[in-house]
């Protein structure tokens, strides 16, 4: 069976100087620090949602908690809109300078959020913060894949994406604890600082990398006429949404269902983050062997673990264990889905790579709204887990169709 066509950037730029393994490792590590900043802002707000709701609304109840979920949703909407738009604008640009611009935009939006006085202005700040998210990851992933070469591209992409997972393991618990102790808005100051440090690291270690010869906005758009790409986007949206239905309300589940104190929340998000780190690297390793095979196994595990989570969330040790398993199995999808989308549109690598993050954050928004809907309906804080398990089963069906399309195209699954 034929191998999938690698993205153009792994075979282009033959005039670029060769890099040592150490240089490549440092460059990819620098790019991953940006993912760390993104992971902190995307997930720490979930652990600090009770503090944010209390500050912005003056009271905590099911209605204000549901509104607080919009802080997650508006960030995700920013990613959904910003990823394709900014990726198109950057299609012809030198990638290092474009990555630095996106990081500067990201840092500035967090400064705005820190000073936002009202709930509405905070929603705007979250939206602006999300705009550069997907375009940065698309640029960083393509730079890493190009430097690593076709045989190790999924693992290189996994390292870039690992910033999000490691943020959940270390940054999110620390920022959650700081926010609980000194004020939840300090999260935005911390992320802005990390973004500036990332800019310095990328500027020092990452090489300049021109876009593929002949790259253009028109070329990127023409590459979107591909059924497999859109099936992959739908798969990513549906496959990830269940995880966010749970995690968007993890602070409320921990306190209201499991009966643990708020002081335990940093440890709860630490366990979830540890699962994400494990799943991310396992997913990168497995995806270099079989991209869609990894997706199939991972999404089946997500459905199973979420169903069990809903049943046993009142038992502390089982809730924590299932949260780890959900985080690890869902994170396996990250490198595999990013690689799959690049494979489906080799003539539009920048845009295809960005759609992974649009889809991921559309899933974030869908999951948060789905969780808010079942909670507002009075079904309780366990309901998001059952709703998420249902969407994961739907994702399993879409995965089987994606496998069928890939085999029909004569490419490796």
From TrEMBL:
UniProt entry keywords in alphabetical sequence: Cell membrane, Membrane, Transmembrane, Transmembrane helix
A Pfam entry, by short name: MFS_1
Domain of life: Bacteria
Gene3D superfamilies linked to this entry: MFS general substrate transporter like domains
Membrane topology classification: Multi-pass membrane protein
Main localization of the protein described in the UniProt heading: membrane
Keyword Transmembrane helix attributed: yes
Residue ranges occupied by any Major facilitator superfamily (MFS) profile domain in the UniProt entry: 27-407
The keyword Transferase is annotated on this UniProt entry: no
Protein name in the entry: DHA1 family inner membrane transport protein
Organism: Nesterenkonia lacusekhoensis
């Amino acid at each position: 069976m034929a191998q999938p066509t690698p993205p153009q950037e792994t075979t282009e730029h033959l005039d670029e100087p060769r890099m040592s393994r150490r240089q490549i490792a440092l460059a990819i590590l620098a790019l991953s620090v940006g993912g760390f900043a993104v992971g902190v802002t995307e997930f720490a707000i979930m652990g600090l949602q009770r503090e944010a709701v209390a500050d912005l609304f003056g009271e905590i109840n099911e209605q204000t908690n549901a509104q607080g979920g919009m802080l997650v949703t508006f960030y995700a909407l920013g990613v959904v809109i910003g990823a394709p738009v900014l990726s198109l604008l950057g299609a012809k640009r030198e990638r290092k300078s474009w990555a630095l611009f996106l990081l500067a935009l990201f840092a500035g939006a967090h400064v705005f959020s820190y000073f936002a006085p009202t709930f509405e202005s905070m929603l705007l700040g979250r939206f602006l913060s999300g705009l550069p998210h997907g375009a940065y990851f698309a640029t960083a992933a393509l730079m890493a894949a190009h430097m690593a070469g076709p045989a190790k591209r999924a693992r290189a992409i996994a390292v870039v994406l690992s910033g999000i997972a490691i943020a959940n393991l270390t940054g999110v618990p620390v920022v959650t604890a700081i926010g609980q102790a000194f004020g939840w808005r300090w999260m935005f100051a911390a992320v802005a600082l990390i973004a500036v440090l990332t800019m310095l690291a990328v500027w020092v270690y990452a090489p300049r990398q021109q876009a593929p010869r002949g790259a253009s906005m028109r070329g990127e758009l023409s590459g979107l006429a591909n059924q497999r790409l859109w099936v992959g986007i739908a798969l990513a949206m549906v496959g990830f949404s269940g995880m966010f239905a749970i995690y968007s309300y993890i602070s409320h589940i921990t306190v209201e269902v499991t009966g643990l104190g708020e002081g335990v929340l940093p440890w709860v998000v630490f366990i979830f983050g540890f699962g994400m780190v494990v799943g991310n690297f396992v997913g990168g390793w497995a995806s270099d062997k079989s991209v869609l095979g990894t997706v199939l196994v991972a999404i089946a595990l997500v459905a199973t673990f979420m169903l069990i989570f809903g049943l046993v969330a009142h038992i502390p040790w089982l809730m924590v264990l299932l949260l780890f398993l959900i985080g690890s199995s869902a994170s396996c999808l990250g490198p595999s889905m990013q690689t799959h989308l690049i494979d489906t549109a080799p003539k539009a690598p920048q845009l295809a790579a960005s759609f992974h993050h649009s889809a991921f954050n559309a899933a974030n928004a869908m999951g948060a709204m789905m969780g808010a809907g079942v909670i507002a309906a009075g079904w309780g804080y366990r309901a998001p887990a059952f709703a998420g398990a249902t969407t994961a089963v739907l994702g399993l069906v879409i995965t089987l169709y994606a496998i069928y399309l890939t085999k029909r195209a004569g490419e490796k699954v």
